[in-house]
Amino acid sequence: MYVNRIIEKEILKASKEYPVIMVCGQRQVGKSTMLNHIKEPNRKYVSLDDRYARKLAHEDVDLFFETYGYPLIIDEFQREPDILFKIKDIVDKLGYEGKDNKGLFWLTGSQKFVMMKNVSETLVGRVALFEMSGLSQKEIDGNDSLFTTNIEELKTRSYIKKDVHEVYETIFRGGLPEIVCSNIDRDRYYENYVNLYLERDIHDLEKVGKLDDFYNFLVYMAARTAQELKYDEISKQIGVSAPTIKSWVTILERSGIVYILRPYFKKVTDRMTKIPKLYFMDTGLAAYLCRWPNACTLESGPMDGAFFETFVVSEIIKDYLNHGKSTRNIYYYRDLEKREIDLIIEEGNSLTPIEIKKNKMPNHPDKNFDVLTKFNMDIKPGLIICLTDELKPYNRKCWYCPCTLI
C-alpha cells in the first residue's frame, strides 16, 4: 500500500523550476519509493547502493551518464559525490545551448549535512533541497493541511478523534512506511533498521570508534528524548569525552534520526538557557531502543510524557518539512528560574506559545505564558496540545487543542 506524501506537490513544482531536486532524510522513510511513484514514464532510476553502478560512476562518470541518461533518479548519490561535478556540466551545457534543463536529476540520500555540503560546493542556484521524514499522522489520515496556530483556521478543520490508548499505539508504532503499511514484525524490523544504520551510515559518515559504544549512546539518547542536551552529563554516563558526544549527536542529526530544538532568546545576556533540546523524529524507533514491550506499558510508564511531547513536536516538524517550510522559527523557552514553554512559534513580530500535556484538560497550562511579554512582541493566543476531544478555550489567552488536530 502506498500512502501519498504531502511533499510530492512541492517536489513536482520545484522540478519545473530547478535542474536538480535533492531529497534527504533518514533511511527507509520512503524517499525513493515516493520519487518512483511520481516520476514521469521516461525517467530512469539508479541506486548507488548498487556496487556496479557505484563502480561505474567512480571509474567512468561519462559512461555512467551515457548508460543511464536523463531525466534520472539517483538514489543514495552521496556514496559517489563526485558525480555532482558532471551533473553541473550537463545542466550548464544545456542551459548555454538554450535547451530546457529543468528537472533533469532527482537525487536522494540519507546523510543530510554531507549532502548539503557537497551540493552547496557544486550546484549553487541549480538545486532545490527537501528534507523528508517518516509518515506523519496527517499523511496517514489523508489530510494535507499545514500546521497552524491560528484559532479561527483551526476551528474550520476536521480531524480524527483518538483516545489515549489509540494515541500511544500510534506513538509505539512510529511512522516508518514499512511499519505503517504492512504487517511486518515490528521488533525484527527495527532490529534490522538499527543494524543497517550502524553498519552503513555510521561507517560512511566518519569513524566513531567501537560501534558497540555508539549503539549504547544511541539507546541512551532515545531514553533522553524531549530533554535538554547536556554534553558533559551524557559524557559521564556513557564514558566517552564530551567532544565525542557532541560529534555523535551531530551524526544523529545529520542522518535525520533526531531533531535539535533551539532555545528562544533575543540577546546573549538574557537570563535564559542556551541549551538545546533533542527529539527523536520517529517515536517507534525511540520506543524500540528503550525496549518498551508494547504501547500499554509505554503509556503508563515513566516516559509517557516525554514520548507524548516527542510525538507532538516531531509531527509539527514533519508538517513543516512536508510543505517545504523552514523550521527555524520554532523554539522552546526556559529561563534560569526554570519557567518553561514547550514550543514557541515566531512569525514576524509575533510569538505563539504552545504547551504539550498528556491530559484531557490540564490545569494552569498557561502559567508561564506571561514571561513572553518582556520581548515586546505581539503575543498570540496560545495552544495547549493535549488529549482533549475538541478545540475549546481555556481562557482568552489559550485554547485546548486535540493532538490529532495538529
Short précis:
The chain is α/β, with parallel strands linked by helices and 406 residues long. It is 42% helix and 17% strand. The two termini are 24 Å apart.
Report what the structure shows.
By secondary structure, the protein is an alpha/beta fold. The protein folds into two domains: 125 residues, P-loop containing nucleotide triphosphate hydrolases (Rossmann fold, 3-Layer(aba) Sandwich); 265 residues, no CATH class. Helix content is 42%, strand content 17%. Strands 9, 10, 11, 12, 13, 14 and 15 form a seven-stranded mixed beta sheet that branches. It has a five-stranded parallel beta sheet with strand order 2-3-4-1-5, with helices on both faces. A three-stranded antiparallel beta sheet has the order 6-8-7. Strand 3, helix 5 and strand 4 form a beta-alpha-beta unit. Helix 3 crosses helix 4, helix 9 packs across helix 15 and helix 13 packs across helix 14. It is globular and about 65 Å long. The two termini are 24 Å apart. The model has no long low-confidence stretch (mean pLDDT 92).
List the helices and strands and how they pair.
Layout lengths: L6 H9 L4 E5 L6 H8 L5 E4 L3 H9 L1 H8 L3 E4 L7 H14 L8 E5 L2 H11 L4 E5 L5 H5 L9 H5 L8 H10 L3 H5 L4 H20 L5 H12 L4 E2 L2 H8 L3 H13 L3 E4 L15 E4 L2 H7 L5 H6 L3 H19 L7 E5 L5 E8 L2 E7 L21 E2 L2 E5 L5 E4 L2 E5 L4
Parallel strand pairs: 1-4, 1-5, 2-3, 3-4, 11-12, 11-13, 13-15
Antiparallel strand pairs: 6-8, 7-8, 9-10, 10-11, 14-15
Helix pairs in contact: 3-4, 9-15, 12-15, 13-14
